[in-house]
């Protein structure tokens, strides 16, 4: 009897993972590698626009799991905060054009504003754009970011904080993203994943390298680091989650390598360590 | 009427902050700068031994606020964990020689061991050395480390976790260290500082630089970053804490500069931003 075919049907890769590639190269490369889905980063259509990107993706067999990223709701001035809301409404429209029903929110952080005040700004920003998301039938997922990004990327740094926001706004269109890189250390991760339940909208994987050489762009391939990804995946799936499993790796090291070869390593790591 | 003399009576500097200096240079430099206290890092007596260091310090007017650092209780083998306990008993003896009654514990982390198991190892390690600490009249302070150090430095990453350990072991000789760099993002920081109460043994300051260029050695001088240090100091002092305020800065940038000039900048930052 032959070994079972490796199952990559739920494998999704974030386009930033293969940052050196253009969108056409991504579509071609992922298709050749048998990767069925991608999460698209906005940088990958900033040159030629979302409409052309949507056409290319419709012509491919690739599924667009989600759009990365909305958010960045914090700012010192009310005018900048209103601008951020408008920008998020525009991103929701882009998701519709791209044919995906999910946007990941990196909520934002502005050095110098007290964190509780920033979290109020974030809640206010999400509340303001939720009606537009509902009309567009696009879900928004709050992604808690690692506390090392609390200064300038997100003031939401634990799953409990994200769940609290979902509870407060009480909408079927708002949920959370679990990224093992951001949350693996969180002492209440297991119970908060259980609490998220049906509002757990997406799941990101990579690994934590020891030593980490760059605070932003040194994520490791699954299996190269210290994160117990299968344990976290089991907690995630215990909620009933059966969506795509999204590989999101920012890595100066991997970006320097041949991206087609890197895709093969990702597939192998996904099959072995997730 | 003359302006009040700047009050540096509670200013303590960690010897690693001026890492390029030898212990004699530290004693001379801090004394000239009017810094009344230091927390001594073990590296500063590894060449000439603790007895000579103790003699030099006794001959100076400097107060030794604490000894950095004990801990590192986690390990894959029972033998290595026993070795760590022995090492901590030795560090307690060194504290006695140095004439300080406080040791900071960086509790340790070992990639690949599940975090809950590591925390059990840490609790077991502290419990094993506490009787020796009590006999020596040396207090042990658990320092929660930033979650970006959860892989290889400490599996204790929130003040709640540290407080839980203090509660569990219930000894007057065990408490916590609050370091603003490690804990500023912690959503329950204020309430957990209040909970720590009289077991709040020491207080470390520095600042979080945006962007942070190195995960270990890019701490900023107070006032250069996004941490609201006066707010955290107020919470700390609300518990009744009146101990030294310890400046602990790991910085490749500052280590390259003239250390006497750096000390003057530290004093100014302490008087202005703490």
The CATH architecture classification of chain A is Alpha-Beta Barrel
Percent range for β-strand residues of chain A: 15-25%
Q: Secondary-structure element order of chain A, as H and E?
A: EHEHEHEHEHEHHEHEHH
Query: Which percent bin holds the helix content of chain A?
Result: 40-55%
Looking at CATH, the homologous superfamily of chain A is: Divalent-metal-dependent TIM barrel enzymes
The helix-and-strand class of chain A reads alpha/beta
- Counting copies of identical and different chains, the oligomeric state is homodimer
Determine the number of helices of chain A (DSSP H or I, runs of at least 4 residues): 10
Report on the biggest sheet of chain A. 8 strands, parallel, barrel
Uncertain segments of chain A are none
């Amino acid at each position: 009897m032959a070994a079972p075919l490796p199952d990559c049907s739920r494998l999704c890769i974030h386009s930033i993972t293969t940052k050196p590639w253009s969108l056409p190269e991504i579509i071609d490369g992922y298709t050749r590698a048998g990767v069925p889905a991608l999460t698209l980063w906005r940088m990958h259509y900033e040159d030629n626009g979302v409409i052309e990107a949507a056409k290319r993706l419709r012509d491919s067999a690739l599924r667009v799991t989600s759009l990365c990223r909305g958010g960045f709701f914090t700012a010192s001035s009310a005018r900048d905060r209103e601008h951020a809301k408008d920008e998020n409404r525009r991103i929701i429209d882009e998701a519709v054009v791209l044919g995906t029903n999910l946007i990941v929110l990196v909520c934002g952080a502005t050095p110098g504003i007290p964190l509780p005040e920033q979290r109020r700004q974030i809640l206010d920003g999400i509340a303001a754009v939720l009606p537009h998301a509902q009309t567009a039938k696009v879900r928004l997922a709050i992604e808690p970011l690692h506390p090392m990004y609390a200064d300038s990327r997100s003031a939401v740094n634990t799953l409990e904080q994200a769940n609290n926001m979902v509870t407060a706004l009480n909408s079927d269109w708002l949920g959370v993203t679990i990224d093992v890189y951001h949350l693996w250390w969180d002492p209440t991760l297991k119970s908060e994943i259980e609490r998220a339940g049906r509002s757990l909208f997406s799941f990101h994987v990579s690994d934590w390298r020891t030593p980490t050489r760059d605070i932003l762009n040194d994520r490791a391939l699954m299996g190269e680091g210290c994160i117990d990804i299968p344990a976290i995946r089991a907690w995630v799936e215990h909620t009933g989650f059966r969506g795509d499993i999204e590989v999101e790796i920012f890595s100066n090291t991997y970006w320097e390598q041949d991206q087609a070869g890197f895709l093969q390593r990702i597939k192998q790591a996904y099959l072995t360590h997730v």
